[in-house]
Structure formats: structure tokens, C-alpha cells
């Protein structure tokens, strides 16, 4: 029984290694350039860079009631 489970474990390991070997790889410099380009293209949509409009900010301080 032990050799059968060992065999199935090894089969799973081989399948995982085949999957990892088939992954397309790119150079780090190319990935960094693509990431930088993506960030520059989407900077206008980034709330941390351009801020949030006051009306749609869920973290703003609640207003006090003027009727009290």
C-alpha cells in the first residue's frame, strides 16, 4: 500500500513540475518595464495618487446634524 501511495505522490510531483516547466518566462528587466508602463498608464485612476472626490470618500468624517 505504501509503494502505491508513494507512486501517486510522485506522479503528482511530476505533473506539477511539468506544469511549472511549461510556464512562459520573461526577463526581469522586461517585466519591470511592462509594470512601469502599466503604472504610468493607470496613474490617473489611482486614488492614492490623485485623491478621492469628497462626496464619494467612504472614509471621510461624518457630518454633525445641524438640527440638534
Q: What's the structural blueprint in terms of helices and strands?
A:
Blueprint: H1 2-21, H2 28-41, H3 47-50
The average pLDDT is: 87
Number of separate helices: 3
Question: What is the general shape?
Answer: elongated
Structural class: mainly alpha
> What are the low-pLDDT stretches, counting only 5+ consecutive residues below 50?
none
Number of strands: 0
Largest sheet: none
Cα Rg: 26 Å
Strand content: under 5%
H-E string? HHH
Structure description:
The protein has a domain at 2-48. It is an all-alpha fold and 68 residues long. It contains three helices and no strands. The mean pLDDT is 87. The chain is elongated, with a radius of gyration of 26 Å. Residues 3-68 form the G protein gamma domain. It holds the Pfam family G-gamma. Keywords: Acetylation, Cell membrane, Lipoprotein, Membrane, Methylation, Prenylation, Transducer. Belongs to the G protein gamma family. GO terms for molecular function: G-protein beta-subunit binding.
Amino acid at each position: 500500500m505504501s509503494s502505491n501511495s508513494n507512486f501517486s505522490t510522485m506522479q503528482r510531483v511530476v505533473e506539477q513540475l511539468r506544469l511549472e516547466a511549461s510556464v512562459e518566462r520573461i526577463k526581469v528587466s522586461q517585466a519591470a518595464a511592462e509594470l512601469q508602463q502599466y503604472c504610468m498608464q493607470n496613474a490617473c485612476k489611482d486614488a492614492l495618487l490623485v485623491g478621492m472626490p469628497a462626496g464619494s470618500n467612504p472614509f471621510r468624517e461624518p457630518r454633525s446634524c445641524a438640527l440638534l
